[in-house]
UniProtKB/TrEMBL annotation:
This is HNH endonuclease. Keywords: Endonuclease, Hydrolase, Nuclease. Pfam families: HNH. Residues 148-206 form the HNH nuclease domain.
Length: 231
C-alpha cells in the first residue's frame, strides 16, 4: 500500500483532522448509519490533508483503529487495525483523541460530530448550555456552541419539525434531517440553551430568517414549544 510520506512527517493538525473524521464515521457506525469511507478520504485530501495520498489517509485511519484497540475502545470495522504504528504517530493520535471531547465549539463540523456522538444515548439531565455564547476569532462571525444542546433538542423533536409539526422532509445517514435554530439569534445575544433552541425542517428554518412573517412565526414557536423561554 502506498502510504505517502513517512509517518513521522505528519503534523499535529493533520493527525487531528484524521482523528476528527474517523470519530465522525465511528459515531455514525455506532448509530447504525451508513457512511462513505472513500468520500471522507477524498474530502480530507481536498482540505487539511491536501499533501497526502489516498493510501496514506487509509493507512492513517487503520493506525487510529490500532490505537483505539489498544485503549480498549470501539473502532471502525472497515478500518482493520494496522500491525505497526510509529511511537510518534501513536502519541499524536492519543493526544488528538484525548482533546476531542464534548466541549463547546465554534467549528460547525466539530460541533456536529460531537452532537452525533452524544445522540447515541439518552440524556440523564437537560443540558445547561451557554447563557452568553462568545464569538470565536475567525474570518467570519462564529459562536461557540454546546453540542449537548444540539443533540438534546434533536432527540426531543423525535424527527418532527417543531415549527410546522410535520416529519422531517428527508433523512441523512439514516436520521431525520432537522436543523437546530436559536429562537433569539446568537447575534442578538440569545443563549445557546435548550430554552432558546428548536429543531426545524429546512423550510421552517429559512422562514424564521427570511420570510415576511418571520417575526410572527417566531412568536408562535413560544406557544408551540413549551420549554422555550423569552429572552
Amino acid at each position: 500500500m502506498d502510504i505517502g510520506k513517512k509517518n513521522e512527517d505528519w503534523s499535529e493538525a493533520e493527525i487531528k483532522a484524521s482523528v476528527g473524521a474517523y470519530l465522525t464515521m465511528l459515531a455514525l457506525e455506532q448509530k447504525g448509519q451508513k457512511f462513505n469511507k472513500a468520500l471522507e478520504n477524498r474530502l480530507l485530501r481536498q482540505g487539511p490533508l491536501a499533501d497526502r495520498t489516498e493510501g496514506s489517509v487509509e493507512f492513517r485511519m487503520r493506525n487510529i483503529s490500532t490505537v483505539l484497540q489498544r485503549m480498549g475502545r470501539n473502532w471502525i470495522v472497515g478500518y482493520k487495525p494496522a500491525t505497526n504504528v510509529g511511537a510518534n504517530v501513536e502519541r499524536g493520535i492519543r493526544e488528538a483523541l484525548a482533546s476531542d471531547d464534548f466541549e463547546p465549539s465554534a467549528d460547525e463540523d466539530t460541533l456536529e460530530r460531537r452532537a452525533i456522538a452524544l445522540e447515541q444515548k439518552p440524556f440523564e439531565n437537560t443540558p445547561k448550555g451557554i447563557l452568553k455564547p462568545k464569538q470565536a476569532v475567525s474570518s467570519r462571525v462564529a459562536y461557540i456552541r454546546d453540542p449537548e444542546v444540539r443533540a438534546w433538542v434533536r432527540q426531543e423533536a423525535k424527527g418532527i419539525c417543531e415549527g410546522c409539526g410535520q416529519p422531517a422532509p428527508f433523512e441523512t445517514d439514516g436520521s431525520p434531517f432537522l436543523e437546530v435554530h436559536h429562537v433569539k439569534h446568537l447575534a442578538q445575544k440569545g443563549s445557546d440553551r435548550t430554552s432558546n433552541a428548536v429543531a426545524l425542517c429546512p423550510n421552517c428554518h429559512r422562514r424564521c430568517h427570511h420570510s415576511n412573517d418571520r417575526e410572527v412565526f417566531t412568536l408562535e414557536l413560544y406557544t408551540r414549544v413549551k420549554r422555550l423561554e423569552r429572552e
